[in-house]
Design brief:
By secondary structure, the chain is an alpha/beta fold. The chain has three domains: 192 residues, Spore Coat Polysaccharide Biosynthesis Protein SpsA, Chain A (Alpha-Beta Complex); 47 residues; 173 residues, Rossmann fold, CATH 3.40.50.1000. Helices cover 42% and strands 19% of the residues. The protein contains 21 helices and 14 strands. The strands form two sheets. The protein has a seven-stranded mixed sheet with strand order 3-2-1-4-6-5-7, sandwiched between helices. Strands 11-10-9-8-12-13-14 form a seven-stranded mixed sheet, with helices on both faces. Helix 5 runs parallel beside helix 8, helix 7 runs parallel beside helix 8 and helix 8 packs parallel to helix 10. 43% of the residues are buried.
């Protein structure tokens, strides 16, 4: 009667222990590990313990949780984190007892551990301001929860650090009976200091988003909230102003001073094969798949270390920070590979990255690649090409509710012509393509992002 759902990303060392614990509960008939495209042995370790493993349809805990809810076959669902090994033996019973006895529709856990800084400094103060009648939960950001499948199917699973508080607020709005139960002492890693700002912004952003219908959420209230936590500045600005903007950077020969695949060809000795594919294969789908085969057998460490050897354009961190401070959502869109763009996303603080999905098995490239749907024509497309970066631009604008006119795109190659033409502001950056220069709003020939400052403002 109970399904246990365990979202997991690179948790090979701990996931088997959590699965075993879940399966020991007498009422559990299904344990589902939702793998977020792990690069280690998470899948094998979970399957070895008898868990059903599915792959998340999108990266991120929120998508994994939603996938698990839809896949589960039982009426009562429990979510456990895959990286915690100090759960009490009866963790599932503790979380589900209020549901089984029909005392609650949704159960949040609380536990003893080191103080949660974002909970105390951001979540609780914000909830008290925007939701004066909100129940006084000890740990509103806890990720160990249980609930009725019928209700969990109706809520929105946010992405990032805001997913857990978003679930709680949605349950509150739905009028669910909510209980908080103690699950004892939990030991898990505290977020590093550099992540606290991001966590604060995302948690605050979800709370503000969920409260937009409330009369109290006016500009005066937002000004008061700003004094709670300096890290909330981005979320408050996004909530208190209507206009948002999007800036999209190409990676190869734009953020980087060289092409990743060309650099890989030099390093790994397949320059001749790459040239043959580029010259003879005009179909972008086939070309992408053939090029990916050249990386078969390379492990993730080799690829990331090679990427780090490529020179980065001067002023990269500064321009990303400036754009974000000026209200832009900043991302990478590349026809390279997501393992590389995500690496630079993390390194330079981009908000998102979109690229082809190079597939791995046990951290080694299989030679297969998935071309994501956002590069293909869809109902929100703004051009007629079958495969184009402008389709990704349209999808990003739809996701963030930003008009295409309020976007900035910067690139260097023929593949960037359409996105630079369609964006509100198109920038040709160190390009040798005369057509790209002719359709761009701005042309920059020096590899220095500080030259974008007047445009970014």
């Amino acid at each position: 009667m109970i399904s246990v759902i365990i979202p997991a990303l690179n948790e090979e060392k701990t996931v088997s222990q959590v699965v075993r614990l879940a399966k020991r509960s007498p009422y559990v008939t299904e344990v589902i590990v939702v793998d977020d495209k792990s690069l280690d042995n998470t899948i094998a370790e979970a399957q070895k313990e008898g868990a059903t493993v599915i792959t998340s349809t999108r990266l991120g805990k929120g998508a994994s949780m939603k996938d698990g809810v839809l896949y589960a076959s039982n009426p009562l669902l429990v979510f456990l984190d895959a990286d915690i090994t100090t759960y009490q033996e009866n963790i599932v019973s503790l979380l589900t007892e209020p549901l089984i006895k029909d005392k609650a529709d949704f159960v949040k856990s609380c536990f003893s551990r080191q103080a949660g800084r974002v909970t105390e400094l951001v979540a609780k103060p914000l909830l008290s301001i925007l939701y004066p009648d909100f129940p006084g939960f000890w740990q509103p950001l806890s990720g160990m929860i249980a609930g009725k499948k019928a209700m969990l199917e109706k809520i929105e699973f946010e992405e990032g650090y805001g997913v857990d508080i978003g679930i709680l607020i949605d349950m509150y709005h739905m009028g669910a009976r909510i209980e908080e139960v103690s699950i004892g002492h939990i030991e898990n890693d505290m977020q590093p200091l550099e992540q606290l700002g991001k966590m604060s912004r995302e948690v605050a952003g979800v709370i503000l988003k969920k409260s937009r219908h409330k009369e109290a959420n006016n500009f005066e209230t937002l000004e008061y909230i700003q004094t709670i936590r300096e890290q909330m500045e981005f979320a408050i600005r996004e909530s208190s102003r209507q206009l948002k903007k999007v800036a999209i950077f190409d990676m190869d020969n734009t953020l980087l001073r060289a092409s990743f695949i060309q650099t890989a060809a030099e390093r790994f000795g397949f320059r001749r094969e790459l040239l043959e594919i580029v010259i003879t294969q005009t179909n972008p789908f086939i070309r992408t798949k053939q090029i990916a085969r050249l990386l078969k057998g390379k492990n993730i460490s080799e690829l990331l270390k090679l990427a780090d050897e490529i020179q980065v354009t001067r002023g990269s961190r500064e321009i990303v920070d400036l754009l974000r401070n000026n209200g832009f959502i900043v991302g990478l869109v590349s026809d390279s590979y997501d393992c590389i763009t995500n690496h630079f996303r993390n390194r330079f603080g981009f908000d998102f990255s979109l690229a082809n999905e190079l597939e791995f098995s046990k951290s080694v490239a299989t030679g297969e690649v998935k071309i994501p749907s956002f590069f293909l024509s869809h109902d929100k497309s703004i051009c007629h090409h079958e495969y184009c970066k402008s389709h990704a631009l349209a999808q990003v604008c739809s996701n963030f509710n930003v008009p295409v006119a309020d976007t900035l795109a910067i690139g260097d190659s023929e593949n960037d012509i359409c996105i630079i033409k369609k964006a509100g502001i198109g920038i040709s950056f160190c390009s040798s393509n005369p057509l790209l220069d002719s359709i761009a709003d701005y042309v920059i020939k020096e590899p220095d992002f500080s030259l974008l400052k007047s445009i970014a403002g």
